[in-house]
């Protein structure tokens, strides 16, 4: 009998970033006080699900500080180790490290980076992001099933863009998109239901919806 698993892709919490830097993969960007509240909210959300008979069996996160800090309260609550998963790292971005990116885009020196928004030309191709995230999802779901059986669940903390383009792929939608259209708020949960053929369905939840309304609109994800 075919076995299934669910991998919950969780976006990290709000980052402390007063200079509004597009931080991307840069080190040293941890959670703000609000982001830490969000991390506690995620621990409560999955903790309550576990108490209701839907336990999480594996925890994994991007190596970046904000992802590791987001999953830490959940790891403490469930008493589970965290697997560091490089394949769900933030996307590469040529504007990384800049503050006030919109202002920089008015400079001709950056215009060549905008030549192909469908790829996109300023960073890691969307297709490449999807491929690496799906590889991580498959390996983690296979491991969860092997160790815990049918219906095993995984929580994987990542970043907005890799999560969003993976969802677009799973829903058979074009990967190119308007960034303002992304349904992937801070500490939202995009759940991939995995079957014998791969991703079979997707669901979405915002456990920290009220806290997200208080978050600043900052660059980076």
From TrEMBL:
<protein>
    <submittedName>
        <fullName>Histidine phosphatase family protein</fullName>
    </submittedName>
</protein>
<dbReference type="InterPro" id="IPR013078">
    <property type="entry name" value="His_Pase_superF_clade-1"/>
</dbReference>
<dbReference type="Pfam" id="PF00300">
    <property type="entry name" value="His_Phos_1"/>
</dbReference>
<dbReference type="GO" id="GO:0005737">
    <property type="term" value="C:cytoplasm"/>
</dbReference>
<dbReference type="InterPro" id="IPR050275">
    <property type="entry name" value="PGM_Phosphatase"/>
</dbReference>
<dbReference type="InterPro" id="IPR029033">
    <property type="entry name" value="His_PPase_superfam"/>
</dbReference>
<dbReference type="GO" id="GO:0016791">
    <property type="term" value="F:phosphatase activity"/>
</dbReference>
């Amino acid at each position: 009998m075919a076995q299934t698993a669910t991998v919950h892709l969780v976006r990290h919490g709000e980052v402390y970033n007063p200079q509004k830097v597009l931080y991307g993969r840069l080190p040293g960007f941890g959670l703000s006080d609000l982001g830490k509240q969000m991390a506690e909210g995620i621990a409560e959300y999955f903790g309550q699900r576990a108490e209701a008979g839907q336990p999480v069996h594996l925890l994994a996160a991007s190596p970046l500080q904000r992802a590791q800090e987001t999953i830490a309260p959940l790891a403490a609550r469930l008493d589970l180790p965290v697997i560091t998963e490089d394949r769900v790292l933030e996307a590469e971005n040529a504007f990384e490290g800049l503050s006030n990116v919109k202002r920089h885009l008015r400079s001709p020196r950056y215009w060549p980076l905008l030549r192909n928004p469908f790829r996109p030309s300023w960073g890691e191709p969307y297709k490449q992001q999807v491929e690496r995230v799906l590889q991580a999802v498959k390996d983690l779901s296979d491991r969860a099933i092997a160790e815990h059986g049918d219906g095993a669940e995984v929580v994987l903390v990542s970043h907005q863009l890799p999560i969003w383009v993976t969802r677009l792929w799973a829903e058979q939608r074009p990967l190119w998109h308007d960034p303002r259209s992304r349904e992937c708020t801070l500490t939202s949960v995009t759940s991939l239901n995995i079957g014998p053929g791969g991703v079979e369905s997707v669901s979405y939840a915002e456990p920290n919806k009220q806290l997200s309304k208080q978050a600043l609109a900052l660059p980076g994800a």
